[in-house]
Amino acid sequence: MDGHNAGQLHGRHLQRAPPARSLNVPYTLTLPIGAVEAFVLIATRVLAVLATSPVLGMKNVPVQAKLGLGLFTALILVPVITKDGLPAGVDVSWTALAGEALVGALSGFAATLAYTAVSFGASLIDIQAGFSMGALYDATLGAQGAVLERFYSAIAALLFFQTDAHHLVIQALVQLFTVVPLGTFSLTKINPELLAQIAASSFVVALELVFPLMVALLLADIALGVLSRVAPQFGIFQIGLQVKVALALGALALTMPLLLPRLHALFGGMIGVSVAVLK
């Protein structure tokens, strides 16, 4: 390099690097606070509904599936719920989160209360027919259940999806946000009288579902009682249980076509009460 000509190499100028300077690129990630708050509140309500709703809230449904379905549903509902904006003063606080969780839990509990008519009615037949002596674990309810109770619960769970009742759950969720907007829940919105009516009507529906079987088994009990008085040497207690089991299964096969429309109507009413429980 020529000593007297700085910056030159064999008569050519060297290309000097530009001076170092601070990297100040304006790059920020911004998210609309309203949408983020709405997603958190909506997800809280949806997850509470899924945790307490029938079929979807059963214990044998994996927690990961419930969590994924709830978050995905909440993400879809955000633009639907927030298209008209959020109510004034709505923010993500512990009070707001607790209110949304309570709204979802009450809605799901009301639907489950109506859904229990299926298992309750079947348990009456199990007791009357003698199936309750062989109770087994019912995976759909996460508890002990006899043969017919487990059978009715499985049929109801299958019909829940076959009749697209899970679509009605999504519709009820959207309606629930109309009845109780985000962040506006108060205890005065709970309708305790309707909860009592749902419990009473569930008992009536349970009797309607299994009424033909109960009548058949009642007539069998009367006939066996008369026969035991007329001919006690037959040992009615030994043969009576087998007769009642066979009669219950035969009556179940004959009345199954009548059961399916009743379950379909039950699902429709179940979704309605899940919204009406909050006023």
Structural commentary:
α3 packs parallel to α6 (192-230). The protein has seven helices and four strands, in the order ββαααββαααα. The radius of gyration is 32 Å and the shape is elongated. The chain is mostly helical and 279 residues long. Helices cover 67% and strands 4% of the residues. It has helices at 33-52, 63-81, 94-129, 147-162, 165-179, 192-230, 236-276; strands at residues 8-9, 12-13, 136-138, 143-145. The model is unreliable at 25-31 (pLDDT under 50). The strands form two sheets. Strands 1-2 form a two-stranded antiparallel sheet. It has one domain (31-276).
Distance between the termini: 90 Å
Shape annotation: elongated
Instruction: Strand order, main sheet: write it out.
Output: 1-2
* Total beta strand runs: 4
Element order, helices and strands? EEHHHEEHHHH
User: What oligomeric state best describes the polypeptide chains here?
Assistant: single chain
Q: Roughly how many Å is the radius of gyration?
A: 32 Å
Tally the structural domains. Answer: 1
Biggest beta-sheet profile: 2 strands, antiparallel
Structural class: mainly alpha
Number of helices: 7
Q: Top keywords for this entry?
A:
two-stranded antiparallel sheet, about 280 residues, single chain, two-stranded antiparallel ribbon, about 5% strand, mainly alpha
List the helices and strands and how they pair.
Elements: E1 8-9, E2 12-13, H1 33-52, H2 63-81, H3 94-129, E3 136-138, E4 143-145, H4 147-162, H5 165-179, H6 192-230, H7 236-276
Antiparallel strand pairs: 1-2, 3-4
Helix pairs in contact: 1-2, 1-3, 3-4, 3-6, 3-7, 5-7, 6-7
